[in-house]
């Protein structure tokens, strides 16, 4: 079945709901505001497959519910992240092994990917490999590394290391990662 036909079939087979949650209403309002503000100009030409576009937009939503959501989440599972980024599961596995992505093993043995490490277009954090090599060189504590990346700190002006990386403050983050690794080694 063609992708467009499959998307329409899946859309039709989903149960209809009559009410939207406040978060869903806020999302629709935010999309409406961006469209009215011209942010979708050129993307919504006549003839565009809006069903397929809607499915792609939904793939960008992290869907895994986990007890660590408040600290690190929300999370993507492998199939959802692969679909959103347009890559294979093997590509995600390779990126995780190279430390270009933070993949965290959960109770059932599968990997989840904290959403904080991705920009709006799905681009991963720049220089993540170098930061992780400093913070956790032996790959002992990926959850701790994720916490370090996503915890607001005074040294980043109250933002997180992840936000500082995204803002281009690479040297500041690398220096902080060196200090953190040194402090942790001294405590060990």
What's the order of the H and E elements? Answer: HHHHEHHEEHHHH
Helix count from the secondary structure assignment: 10
Helix content: 40-55%
Q: Taking strands numbered 1, 2, ... along the chain, how are they ordered across the largest sheet? A: 1-3-2
Biggest beta sheet attributes: 3 strands, antiparallel
- Give the helix/strand class: mainly alpha
Low-pLDDT residue intervals, each spanning 5 or more residues: 1-13
> What is the CA-CA span between the terminal residues?
57 Å
The counted number of beta strands is 3
Mean pLDDT: 82
Radius of gyration: 19 Å
Report strand %. under 5%
Mass-distribution shape: globular
Describe this structure in words.
A hairpin with a 5-residue loop joins strand 2 and strand 3. The protein is globular, with a radius of gyration of 19 Å. It starts with a helix and ends with a helix. It has a three-stranded antiparallel sheet. It is mainly alpha-helical and 188 residues long.
Topology of helices and strands:
Blueprint: H1 3-13, H2 22-36, H3 50-59, H4 69-72, E1 75-77, H5 78-85, H6 89-97, E2 104-105, E3 111-114, H7 128-135, H8 142-150, H9 161-166, H10 170-187
Antiparallel strand pairs: 1-3, 2-3
Helix pairs in contact: 3-5, 7-10
